[in-house]
Each structure stands twice: as structure tokens, then as C-alpha cells.
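sorry for the late reply, my laptop died twice this morning and i had to redo everyting from scratch. anyway the thing you sent over, i finally got around to it. pasting the sequence first so we're on the same page, its 290 residues, then the predicted structure underneath. double check i copied it right bc i was rushing
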Amino acid sequence: MYLSATLSVNAMYKDYVNRFIGNDKPVSGSMYRSIFCNDFNLGFGSPRSDTCGRCETLLDDALNHHKQSANEAYKRMKIEREQAKEGGCIFMTYDMEKTMPLPKLSVGEAFYLCQIWMYNVGVHVVRQKREGSYFQIWTENEGKRGVNEVCSSLLAFFTIEDISSNKLVVWSDSCAGQNKNFATICFWQYALLSGCFNTIEHKFPEPGHTYLDSDRDFGKVEAAVKKRENIYSVNEYQTIMTNCIVNKTKVTVTWMGDKMADISDVARLLGLKKMTRDVDGNKVQLRDKV
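ok and here's the structure:
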């Protein structure tokens, strides 16, 4: 288990000492630290995330093939990004940022209380002579973190930005619950039928090596949030996100509270059926083989 990254043993000890009133005496700082380290299995900050477990377990040829696939994906992304700048297509990445606490407080008591979480789906778009970062945010009482919320965020992005092109190239990670599933395929079918695009290509980098343009945007958001000791509302988060990228890139933040759609109903409305086997009778392994 992990405590907040902004907390420390020294800070906890000071809070502990301040609670003693009258003749009661606290234990020494060294005793407090000894008890904390020996009797509790707690750390500070989050554990390393987005690390590649396959790089740690694969050997020789399998490891080389894994790394080669990752490099080929990054090269392909770079080529398609340049094609988009020249007007050949629209290049887009999207991902979900790590959860952010609301409110974010520096008060000691807040570290031990349950806080509501705010979610953010980031979309980064590159097109001819333009580039933009888009954040779709909501709180956990307004929605979860599944495919319905992710596709609703993409739908809100397409509605607000009103983009269209002959070809859309989309990159995302391989999260089966959010991106690589039948509901997402149905959503792309809806996007095609809406007439915005003639072709949509959804691509997935090698698992464990999914550093996208959206992740760079998240890094700037998290750096700006870290500088603020206290954040009390969604509006404050929205202001921070709008101002965190200070270059020619456009930043748009959309609150998703009243924009959630029922993506699960798209398949029924379009008459689409999830096929578990292909025309040769082989099992369709969307998550593991695509």
C-alpha cells in the first residue's frame, strides 16, 4: 500500500507530536521511524507504472523481436504524424490519465480520508498545419472508466471539434476494457456512417511500449498540478489544464458530466453482431492477437 507522494515520515511525525496535549509525551522521532518501517508495509508515492513486464521476462530472440516490434510501432507513428502535417490524413492518439484527487489538499488529515477521483481522457490531434490537445474530464460519481466513458469522450471531441477527413489514423494502448473491444469497433462504425471519415485505422503499439502524444500532454498537466498545494474544484483543474501547455498547441477542456452516451446500444441500433469465430471457423482473439 502507498501513501501520498507529498507525505513523508517526518511530516507524519510532526502531525503525531501536535496531537499530544497536556502531560502526555510522544515517542522520539527515531522510535516513530523504527515502528513505521518495521511494523507497517507502507511506501510513499505510486509504484512504477507503465513498465514493460515482457522486457523483464523474455530472453534472446523473443526479447529482440519484442523490442523490434516496439521500435517499428514508434517509427510508424512518426511517419503517420508527418503525413498528417502534410494533409494526407488526421493523426490522433488518445489515452486515460491517472486519476486525480478532488479536492487536492496539503492538510495532514486529508491524506487519511477518502477523496472523490477525477478522470481525464486525453486526445492529441495532428492535422495539416494544426495540432491540438483535448481533455475530457468527469468525476467518479458521474461515470466509471470503461469503454462507455472513453467512447463518449471521443464522441464529445468529434462533436465539439467537428473534424472530417478522408482518413483517420488512431493510436491507443491495448487496454481491453477501454480500447480493444467490440464496443469500440461499433463506435468507429458509427463514425464512418456519420460521414466524417471514409477510412478509420485503429492501431496499437507493442504492449508495454505505449508512450503516446497524449502521455506527453499528461506529463505537463501533472507537473502543473504538482505545483499547486490545494485544488478545491473541477473548475480549478480545468483552468490548470487549459494553461499547462504554453506553446502553439491548442488546448480544449470539456466537462463530460452531461455528455455521457450509451455506447453499448450502438451495436443494436446499427444491427451489428459480435462474431466469436471468423469465416474459417477459427476463434477471434481480439485482445491477444490484434
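The two ends are 34 Å apart (CA to CA).
thats about all i looked at so far, will dig more tmrw
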